Amino acid sequence: MSKTNTEALEKGLAFTPRFAADGTIPAVATDVETGDVVMLAYMNEASLRQTIETGIATYWSRSRQSLWVKGETSGNRQHIVAMRTDCDQDALWITVRVEGHGASCHRGYHSCFYRAVPTEIVGAGTVGENVPLEFCEAEPVFNPSTVYGKKS
Amino acid sequence: MSKTNTEALEKGLAFTPRFAADGTIPAVATDVETGDVVMLAYMNEASLRQTIETGIATYWSRSRQSLWVKGETSGNRQHIVAMRTDCDQDALWITVRVEGHGASCHRGYHSCFYRAVPTEIVGAGTVGENVPLEFCEAEPVFNPSTVYGKKS
Residue A43, exposed/middle/buried by CB under 10 A (0-12, 13-18, 19+)? Predict the structure, then answer.
């Protein structure tokens, strides 16, 4: 990319999101109440437009290859409080107010990031092949079987 | 993926990050002081291992195709305070304490997400082709020309 284009992309006042080869851009969602990152999902051009126009987070489901109004089934819709883009406009950060249970994960947790690498491991030198996780959210906020129906 | 594998992936206590076809996994970094999302970058298996072992955020630069210890030039290293993974283990969330200027963007801003889609546009219905941005960080924290040297 030429310097002029980089300047426009990084210092300009035009929103020109750069979608990856598969037509998507990653969108980080944080909860306005807790500040937590609650999910990382993807938008394509149509879902980004719908998100801006409706103010409700709408993603592109890469697995289902379809528009995905987050929370349509569970009631946990995400209302956009703020939408930012990064320096080279290949990522989005949305701050959301979550309706319903206030949970964003299909597993019923507040955040999809409900497990952590134990802090005593991080920065402590060589790790083996097996790195453990620990739960950092105690309990799901809702029961997925009840909300989505039991999957066979 | 079979149900058993999904259960292990999403409810288990083994860290089994799922790298994309290009060998990378997206990592969202938030600042422990401000709670802001400061960048979205990518790690490959080697950089993730180095991050865990050293406690310093180390990414994989997709443009340079090399390990990238964030802040090595600017002094703005990111110390890992917490590292989490999401439900299907295809994304990471790291909370960091930033050394030096406390800025994470190569443009000198605290956060790479220094521009926003104006809130009055979001949720207000049809938008045209041209969506504007506005700055949400007033001034860079450091001068990139001074820190990185002027690029020709």
Answer: buried
**B23 close contact with A: CB closer than 8 A:** no
ipTM: 0.95
Q: Which two tokens stand for residue B108?
A: 């000198």
Distance (Å) from the alpha carbon of A59 to chain B's nearest alpha carbon: 15
- E strand or H helix at B54: helix B45-54
Segment A132-145, tens digit of pLDDT: 999 999 899 999 99
Chain B from 69 to 108: CB within 8 A of any A CB: 79-87, 91, 93, 105-107
Question: Number of Cβ pairs closer than 8 Å across A and B?
Answer: 161
The pTM (predicted TM-score) of the whole model is 0.95
Q: Which residues contact B102 (CB under 8 A, 6 or more apart)?
A: B31, B33, B76, B110, B141
Q: Which domains does chain B have, with CATH numbers?
A: 17-106 (3.10.20.810)
